[in-house]
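Could someone model pyridoxal-5'-phosphate with this protein?
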Amino acid sequence: MIRLIRPYITFDEVEADFRQMFVDGMFTRGQHVEGFRKEIAAYCGVPHAHLATSATTALSICLKLLGIGPGDEVVVSDFSFPATANVVEDLGARPVFADVSLDSYNMLPAALEARISERTKAVIFVDAFGNPTGLHDILAICRERGIPLIEDAACAIGSSERGIMVGSIADMTCFSFHPRKLLTTGEGGAITLCRDDWSAWFDVKLNHGASGMLGYGLEFVEQGYNYRLSEPQAIMGRVQLRKLDAIVAERNEIRQAYIDRLVGAGFIAQVRGADVVHNVQSLVFRVPSGVDRDALISRLREKGVETTIGTYSLSGTTYYRQRYDDVQSNAVRLQQETLTVPCYAAVAVDTVCTAILAGIAG
Ligand SMILES: Cc1ncc(COP(=O)(O)O)c(C=O)c1O
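Reply:
Sure, complex below.
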């Protein structure tokens, strides 16, 4: 079976640090957690990074920082994983779905403008499959309206737009380190930001609400959470962060090899701006018109090639459709037409493409 993903980390790369961690008995809040946090901030070019248990908890805490709750609205990109909207819904606020471009798969500026109301308290832009195309245009609208922009960059570590790294563009940027991402710690996430006051708030909130020490122990000045990443996860993260730029370059070469074979047969590649570095977290194409995408996935599985859909129209999921009846057409179309193909160093692009081309022939 040609699998869809393969991690960019091997046991021998972490073995020495894992052994030392057992000797030291430091499984959380050790040197690697602190080191990883600083390295992420430096990589993104921002003063602050906070580690979290996932992109979901990272997004959730950002919304909490903004005080979002019942009666508020948050405009979210409609083509994403449900976590993007679930974190809004969880706080009793309403996710308002903005439709996306059929080319880049990212939030359309006109759709955002149309969905902003006096109840809008934040915008969540999603870098679809790691592609930040259009992020600065969305930022400009948010700046003009005085609305905070949270970037759901779950997939986008290592990408940039206009020469500026993802992680230093939006007001707060949230990353995921789930195994489908370029950098994985099993589960995990991070938030990057510039504002010192917000960073100090995260320091307290992400640490059970403790701000420092009293004579007998910790001083708890806030209600808080434990969303901390652990030491073994940080060891894994540091190894991959050092290789990240090389991984991005390699994935772009693989993408080009697929484009050379598939575009002539009617497949449409995800479009990125000329000023964008896209990390190709997932390599996604729209299938040629008339091709039954689901049947193609099944045929490929029978031939030993694992592929999957792109992602979801959030407004079209059973839950959000029944709750808000606010379905966005482009996102639904992308959910039906997109195909994710295997993309990693050793993947046999020719074999996969031959199977795909035979698959669309019936
Ligand atoms: C765009 C997007 N946002 C959020 C998430 C949730 O990330 P995590 O699994 O780290 O909570 C994902 C996961 O795939 C995602 O793709």
